[in-house]
Amino acid sequence: MTRFFYPSLAVVAVTVMSLLPLTLDPQGYEIRILCIAMLFAALGQAWNIVGGLANQISLGHAAYFGIGAYTSTILLRLFSLSPWLGGILGMVLAVLFALLLSVPTVRLKGHYFALATLGAGEAMRVIANSWASVTGGPVGISVPYSRESSLWMMQFPTVLPNYYLFLIALVIICLVFWKIQTGALGFRLRAIKENEQAAEVIGVDTYRAKLIASTVSAAITAFMGTLYAQFQFFFDPDTVFGVATISVKMALIAILGGVGTLLGPLLGAAFIIPMEEFANSYFGASVAGLSQFAYGVILVVIILINPRGLVALIGQIKNRIFSKGGSQ
Fold it and tell me: Where is the chain membrane-spanning (predicted)?
């Protein structure tokens, strides 16, 4: 029964998400919020490969995101290269950076690994701020805009095509995560998460497994950076390389939703992004910092109710309902 339930649920969810924008204004605020929610759901799923399955708490994923955004935008500005090709090159550069970062740090554990990745992300932000002749520096960089609609150049008159690009990317990334989670690599990563020394004793190449997970996660994150750049048309180093705006939020979405689970980042993004916008809309103009305080309080309450995230909380509620129904 379960084998058919989850695929059916996934088909229904994708169908609903495909039809939902048809009821909304293609240039409206709501559809932009949905795009951002799907963006961070995909980013949370990418982080989930490393942080969820292997328990490697990375705070440097903003580096990969920024590499993807800047690579595709700079190549588009200088050579009119399609963002699809620029995005692929950005993925390659992000993988190379992930290898450069992971080779010396992948054996680190806990807060040592987190600090090492945090430093790498901050280093990229400093480089982008300093290299103003290429990146625009603190002023930022804009994506050349064409009034002609072109899928090849990712240029559209409305955000509706961007919505479907984010949806397709999210579906593909979820399938990649599911394939890893249910495959041999996923079992190796979960063994590392439970007890890395024991995993090595039984023959798991922990170094290789974490290296593969890091590079796959980096490539996915970089391509989402390309989609983000073509969606926003303007960004600066603090936006795409920001620890709080990208790295921490990716981790928070996965952890709040349910770390190491397929549905976790989806639920986390579906809750956090609209809640953040709601808090900014209703509390942002009243008292400075009140919106972030209200937003933070809600997150703390949910984590206190069930530290394992929304997936576990929903399962707990479902079990109580069915248990009450069964007792009657």
Answer: 6-24, 31-50, 62-79, 84-103, 163-180, 251-273, 293-314
Domain range for 213: 24-260
DSSP code, position 54: S
Residues 169-189 pLDDT 10s: 999 999 999 999 999 999 999
Contact 117, 104 (CB under 8 A): no
Is 33 inside a domain boundary? yes
Q: Is residue 153 part of a domain?
A: yes
4 inside domain:
no
User: Per residue in 198-240, pLDDT tens?
Assistant: 999 999 999 999 999 999 999 999 999 999 999 999 999 999 9
The residue among 267, 262, 266, 249 whose CA lies nearest residue 306 is 267
Q: Is the dihedral of CA 152, 154, 160, 164 positive or negative?
A: positive
Give the other-Cβ count within 10 Å of 193's Cβ: 17
Residue 265 included in any domain: no
Residue 59 and residue 243 in contact, taking contact as beta carbons nearer than 8 Å: yes
Closest CA to 137 of 126, 122, 145, 147: 126
As for how many domains the chain has, the answer is 1
Coil, strand or helix at 235 = strand
What does the alpha-carbon distance between residue 209 and residue 54 come to, in Å, rounded to a whole number? 9
DSSP code for 25: -
